[in-house]
Amino acid sequence: MTNSPDISRRDWLMVAALGVIWGSTFLVIEIALRGITPFWLASARIVFASGLVGLIWLFKGARLFADPVNAGTWVLLAVTGALSTAVPFLLISWGQQYVTSGFTGVSMASVALMVLPLAHFLVPGEQLSWRKALGFVVGFAGVVVLIGGQAFESSGTEDEIWGRLACLSAAACYAVSSVMLRKLPKADPVGLTAVTLFIGLVPVLTVALAIEGLPPAVDGPTFAALAVLGLIPTAGAFLLRIMVVLSAGPTFMSLTNYQVPIWSVIMGWLVLSEPLPPSLIWALLLILGGVGLSQYGALTRLFRR
Length: 305
Hints:
Layout: H1 9-23, H2 25-32, H3 38-59, H4 71-95, H5 101-109, H6 111-122, H7 130-147, H8 160-183, H9 189-212, H10 220-248, H11 250-253, H12 256-272, H13 280-294, H14 296-304
Helix pairs in contact: 1-10, 1-12, 2-10, 3-4, 3-9, 3-10, 4-8, 4-9, 5-7, 5-8, 5-12, 6-8, 7-13, 9-10
């Protein structure tokens, strides 16, 4: 059996940073949606992100794979790029029209549970153990406690069932693409980020044009929100995500999804003066306990250094 990936202090810091970045994204999306339609919002995110990462990649020499690869690798990369960007961006943009925000939060947290069986069968060194499985279930329970009953309340819309399926399908896309990233040959993280964003660019723009027509004119605050979304939660965070998956594996990367609802609640309290739920402390304890259980070996090695 292949040994589990050695998880470093740098990996822990990157996962923590991803939790903060993605947890604060909902605030910026809320601002952006005041002045732009959902599919054009998704398109703007990818346009800004691919432009920035593409320029950095060109400056670095535009290298991708360390060694020559066959046609099958390019097919795998194309599917990975679509499942990392285009498909989940479109599904979430459409699905959030018909479901509660709480259900969306639980859907994103479910990525961690979806990754477990996929990584067990497809990624050497990511075999499922009882401690890892129990830890992820405890962490997921913490997310449900944090969001509360509103996660499963009906939104009252006619297409709610399709909205829920869209959100869960987006989570499945993130889970599958995380595992597929690990199956790719050794690659430059910046190049891999740029190419996956380029792959998502064409289908997202096509859907936006076909369904919502030409892009609307936007005001200054909306443009600024779109720029922030593209440059930080999309470009920066996607680069971090790929670096974590390549370094520590998809199962460790999926710990980010438990952090997102916590930071979303805290950011809402800090920025929008929303009340903190009384369940926050219990949820935090459950989530940290789940992380501790699932990553017991990595934490032990980290603190022994």
